[in-house]
Structures are given as C-alpha cells and as structure tokens.
Amino acid sequence: MADIFREIEEEVRRDKAAELWKKYGWVITGLAVLAVLAVAGWQFWLHRENQASQAVGARLEAALKSSRDGDATQAETILKELSTTAPAGYRLIARFRLAAETAKRDPAAGAAAFDALAGDASLDQTYRDLAKLRAGILRVDLAPYPEIKAALEPLASAQGVWRHTAREFLGIAALKANLFEDAGRWFDAAITDPQAPRGLRQRVELYLALVRGGPVTVKN
Hints:
Elements: H1 2-68, H2 72-85, H3 88-105, H4 107-118, H5 125-139, H6 145-152, H7 163-176, H8 180-192, H9 198-213
C-alpha cells in the first residue's frame, strides 16, 4: 500500500512539474539565454578592454622612446593626447610624464605643471604629494631656500611617504644657500632614518662631508 501511495505522489509531482514547465518554461529558457549572452558579452568586453589597453600602452612607449631619442616635440604631442583620452591609470602616468618633459625645456613651466597635479583633488593624496615633491625639486635651482622649505618640509615628516627625497633636497637647497646648519639637520634626518634607501645614504654621506667642511673662503 505504501508503494502505491509513493507512486501516486511521484506521478502528481511529475504532472505538476510538466504543468509548471508548460506555463513557465519560456521564462527559464529566456533566463538561460540571457545568462549565456551576459557571459559572452563580458568576455567580449574584456577582450576589447585588453586590446585598448595594449594600444594605449604602445602609444605611451612611443612617447617614452621619442623622449629618449631627443624628440621632445613628438613625446609631448603623444603625452598630451594620452593625458586627456587614455584610461585613468595611463592618463595619470601621461600627465606626470608630460610635466617632466615640459621641465626639460622649461623648469619653471614644468614646476607649474606639477603644481597643477598637486592641486587636482581627484587624485589620491600620495600622487598629489609626489607632484608637490617634483615641483619643489625643480625649484631648488629657481627659488630661494625659504620657498623650497615651505613646499617640501610638510613632506619630510616622519610618516611622509616621500620623506627621504624631501629631506635630501631640503638639505641640498640649504647647502646652496650656504645655510650649513639647516643643511646638516636635514641630511642627518635623512641618514638616521632606518628606512632610508642605501643609495640615498651614500649620497647624503657626500653632502655631509661638504657640510662639515663649512663655507669655502676664497682669498684674493
């Protein structure tokens, strides 16, 4: 008797399933087709994005090659294009490279270009600080020490991502201004930082030798 009831129950379930399929089967089929199309569309989009990324990467490499070859005009032309049309990551690289190219022919204009990057609120603070650093470095040969100090000192704090380079160039700026005490203080801060890169330590040792030598007196 129990077997009969089970068979009847199974038959009822089959009938209900057939009825549901007849009523809603087109919906299930449609959803399956949409799922397949969605996967295919996603794969196609990834393919196109990869192609576009490769094309932009090739253009950026062409700009860098032009720069290495001394063709600044061509390099700047490509970088200007990429700085407005490339995807976000490449666009940021292009803007930094364009500012650097500009600085090669006109340091003041290059510093202004980095100022524009530093003032762009849409950028991550790390990149804005990097732009401030680059602008400050360019002005070491253009501006008095107080101006360099005002620009770079905030980047030289103990937690600053760019503190090592900021301290180095603060020391250089002070040394150029014959402010040996300030120079020594910045170089000491750079060299005593346990996380200072080895190359920077070697350079700072040379700077400190100049600081210890003091001003050079020229006899007439």
